[in-house]
Amino acid sequence: xxxxxxxxxxxxxxxxxxxxxxxxxxxxxxxxxxxxxxxxxxxxxxxxxxxxxxxxxxxxxxxxxxxxxxxxxxxxxxxxxxxxxxxxxxxxxxxxxxxxxxxxxxxxxxxxxxxxxxxx
Length: 120
What we know:
The chain is mainly α. The protein has helices at residues 2-8, 11-41, 43-53, 60-69, 79-86, 110-117; strands at 90-91, 94-95, 98-99, 103-104.
C-alpha cells in the first residue's frame, strides 16, 4: 500500500515513505527467517517441508502456509478432508434428471486453495 502512495506522494514525505518501506522489508525478512528456523528445528516439520518442496513451483512461502493450514491439529484423517478444508472438493450441481457442471466448492481456506492451484 505504501508503495502505491509513493508514486503520488508529496515530495516532502517521499523520503519518509521510502524509510518506512525499507523498515517493513527488513522486518518481513526477519520474520521469514524465524519461520525457516522454526521449521528446521522440528524434525517432523522439516521432513514435511522437504516433501512439499518437491512439488514443482512450491516455494518457502507456500510451504510455511501449507504446513500451518494442513497441520495435525485439524485432525484430518483422509486426504478428502484436507481437500474440503482447502475448498478444493467438487461441488456437484444436480436436480432430478438435470445434472449441471461440477465445480470446486471454493469454501474453506482461500489462501490454501490458491497455493495448491498456483504456488508461490
